[in-house]
Design brief:
16 helices; alpha+beta; single chain; 11 strands; 7-stranded antiparallel beta sheet; globular
């Protein structure tokens, strides 16, 4: 992949929230152009909390003046302090230090509700689940001097758009596998796709032909397909979380909206309380039982309407399948005419194959030994793009929930780090400055707080 191609792939993997679509500028060569514009309008204007998509506490922090204050939670401060280095991790923020915004309040800082949940509920539940009483979740406060040349726009990386990048990186690193392993991997992802045609065709029919499909039928087929196409679990989760945050009218949601924050507790409780995923956080297995969908929503938030949610999920997931998993600009032809060969399929479903390969490599043959380098390669590309754009604090662009990171490769980044403590009012205060250096090298995923698999090996998914 050349520099020019790499730049375009990474630009396409970002959502630019400061670039609203101007009427008349829709790309008519894009078969999804009008639907993309319609969805942007629908989400922002036709939902109770849609105004937060453009005006929120995260964006206020990124566009503010003076130092940027962020909160990070670690369960390994002793080990980090011994070595003196703080490493970024993979995940939705690719290769950055995962944080949430802080707002100055009196002598301390008020946490974004995302950070409140991670520090006070998620991290302790995780430690309890894995049974490691020797680890204590510790809040760290970062004070970052805003670089003079920092990008003033709002470009957030959307991990659902990384499929083409995953495919490109694999094409450069595939010879780490033997000929037989490469053949088996290609056949595996082709088989997964071929055996998921019913769902892919249904989503395409809804998007491109306006097919009228009962939401219950769609969700049943989605549930059946997730074990074969694990990326659908991630997509399903993001859409349901998006729906909850945009449509909830609970008192807590309204209170947080007054602080310009989306209510992250909705989807967090759905994951860790209702679905009991603490300590085994794996969105590839996110598949709430369709028959229990109404009860699930009622437990999470009684103010949302289950029937409306099901119809929304059908439409939104179908759109995102076409927008994120099909090769850009491609409209599927008759599915029964598909050539079920890797190279032919990559021309039409390249992003889907990239996501499948990225997931498969975690447990495939000898490749888990190299998987770290696959993600490190991806991080290098992300850091290169962010530095080109002067992005020192990337954020999760699937939706501005409050997930923000620190670019560890930003040149001459100036920062200070403190161990923090929480007071009775819930504010955090810096209590001890730490001599730590942020280093642009990924930590192995098994050592991260929310994705620690030190105690369990990921199970191979179903083909």
């Amino acid at each position: 992949m050349g520099t020019h191609d790499g730049y375009h792939l990474w630009a396409d993997a970002h959502a630019f929230f400061d670039s609203p679509l101007i009427p008349g500028t829709t790309d008519h060569a894009d078969p999804l152009g009008q639907q993309t514009a319609a969805w942007e309008s629908r989400l922002a204007e036709d939902t109770p909390n849609g105004g937060l998509l453009r005006s929120n506490a995260l964006f206020d922090a990124l566009n503010g003046d003076g130092p940027l204050h962020l909160l990070h939670v670690t369960h390994a401060l002793e080990e980090i302090s011994q070595h003196g280095f703080l490493y970024p991790s993979g995940g939705c923020l690719v290769g950055s230090i995962y944080c949430a915004p802080l707002t100055a309040s009196g002598s301390g800082f008020r946490m974004h509700n995302l950070a409140e949940y991670v520090l006070n509920k998620e991290a302790p539940a995780f430690v309890a689940k894995v049974g490691d009483s020797g680890r204590t979740p510790t809040p760290l406060i970062f004070e970052i001097t805003r670089p003079r040349r920092a990008y003033r726009g709002l470009a957030g990386v959307d991990y659902l758009r990384l499929g083409s990048i995953h495919l490109s990186i694999y094409s450069h690193l595939e010879y780490l596998l033997s000929t037989a392993e490469r053949y088996e991997l290609r056949e595996t992802v082709v088989s997964r796709t071929k055996n998921s045609t019913a769902f892919l065709a249904l989503a395409a029919a809804i998007v491109f032909e306006g097919a009228d499909v009962a939401p219950a039928v769609f969700l049943e087929l989605l549930d059946e397909t997730i074990p074969r196409l694990p990326i659908l679990g991630y997509l399903y989760f993001e859409v349901l979380a998006e729906y909850l945050m945009l449509h909830s009218t609970s008192q807590q949601t309204q209170r947080l909206a007054e602080r310009s924050e989306f209510n992250n507790w909705l989807y967090k409780d759905m994951l860790f309380v209702t679905l009991d995923m603490a300590g085994k956080f794996d969105l590839a297995k996110f598949r709430p039982a369709p028959m229990a969908f109404d009860a699930l929503l009622a437990r999470v938030d009684a103010t949302v309407d289950a029937a409306h949610a099901r119809a929304y999920l059908r439409d939104r997931i179908s759109y995102l399948v076409a927008a994120r998993l099909f090769t850009p600009g491609q409209v599927p032809e008759s599915w029964h005419h598909t050539r079920w060969e890797f190279d032919s399929l990559a021309a039409h479903l390249g992003p889907l194959l990239g996501h499948l390969i990225h997931r498969e490599l975690r447990t495939f043959g000898r490749y888990p030994d190299f998987y770290f380098y696959f993600d490190q390669h991806k991080a290098l590309q992300a850091w290169n793009y962010w530095n080109h754009m002067d992005v020192f604090a990337p954020f999760n662009g699937t939706m501005p929930k409050g997930e923000v990171g620190i670019n560890p490769a930003y040149p001459d980044l100036e920062y200070r780090i403190w161990r923090a403590e929480q007071d009775d009012a819930g504010r955090v205060h810096p209590v001890e400055q730490l001599n730590l250096t942020i280093t642009p090298r990924l930590v192995d995923i098994k050592y991260t707080l929310m994705r620690n698999n030190k105690w369990s090996v990921p199970e191979p998914s179903v083909s």
